[in-house]
Amino acid sequence: xxxxxxxxxxxxxxxxxxxxxxxxxxxxxxxxxxxxxxxxxxxxxxxxxxxxxxxxxxxxxxxxxxxxxxxxxxxxxxxxxxxxxxxxxxxxxxxxxxxxxxxxxxxxxxxxxxxxxxxxxxxxxxxxxxxxxxxxxxxxxxxxxxxxxxxxxxxxxxxxxxxxxxxxxxxxxxxxxxxxxxxxxxxxxxxxxxxxxxxxxxxxxxxxxxxxxxxxxxxxxxxxxxxxxxxxxxxxxxxxxxxxxxxxxxxxxxxxxxxxxxxxxxxxxxxxxxxxxxxxxxxxxxxxxxxxxxxxxxxxxxxxxxxxxxxxxxxxxxxxxxxxxxxxxxxxxxxxxxxxxxxxxxxxxxxxxxxxxxxxxxxxxxxxxxxxxxxxxxxxxxx
Length: 383
Hints:
By secondary structure, the chain is of the alpha/beta class. Helices cover about 30% and strands about 25% of the residues. The chain has helices at about 15-25, 40-45, 85-95, 105-110, 115-120, 130-145, 170-175, 220-225, 240-255, 265-275, 320-330, 350-355, and strands at about 5-10, 30-35, 55, 75, 100, 125-130, 150-160, 180-185, 190-195, 200-205, 210-215, 230-235, 285-295, 300-310, 340, 360-365, 375-380. Helix 7 crosses helix 10 (about 265-275). The longest helix has 15 residues, at about 240-255.
């Protein structure tokens, strides 16, 4: 029998880490160890998992290579990755084990290729951004635009339901850029917009209208780098309740005016406010990818892909790419040694089985007319 892949999941007690632990624990050929600073939280999580797991007290802010010896793969699901250090990456290289993260920090991801030489020499594979963006979003775009001659515009959006669980690291990640200048590609050139600016309402088929604003993510750069859009490449996110979404925009004004450096110190009170109004709204999350450009024969085309996750299954979406890559490392088909951004490493087909078992719906629509025309289900396992 082949030896089980020994996986260390750092940040396992968080919103995303706990969900990755839940799904990875049930995988064959995986020996999972949960890691965090608080063992009590890990013990509570381990009691709910479908298989026995190991536990380890590890602080990613002070981790050393010796802490990782004996594992084959370490996963960073802790965050926030905005202004984050790279101690866990350094430790993985030193311990000569593969590394994977769910990073959404723009600067963190953009600087990731600097580890390529060290990783190659150590014979390990490092992967960043194994999450909704860019892993899933780029897999969708690749599928929607297969055979196209050119892409003009790309719009990616993520819209969690208000009842979805929130973690402090997620809130801190958002607050790190709210009100600060964000570099975006619009009207064929790079421009600056305030974080959480460009506030508007997105009309999502079969879901309804959701608030949306500009976010500072690696997607802004990676979409332009990979797809070379001629007009624009934009990423938006939104909070379901206007009270929270518009309220956050109002809170961004002191940052825009230079009165505050950022809003990260207010993460805890804002999180508590969000919890107070959590019963309001829905448990329905959504993700959209819209593209427009020239088809195989030069004809104008528009297509849209929509993911709908009910019953608070939205927080599972960001961990599906990591789960798919765990399987690849287990099967010996993981990325070659080096430092990789998770763009083009996975195909949409890699996500579909897990979406089906989690009862998520997704569909595509659009042709030479509007995005909403001729919409049809791609796959749905919802009853």
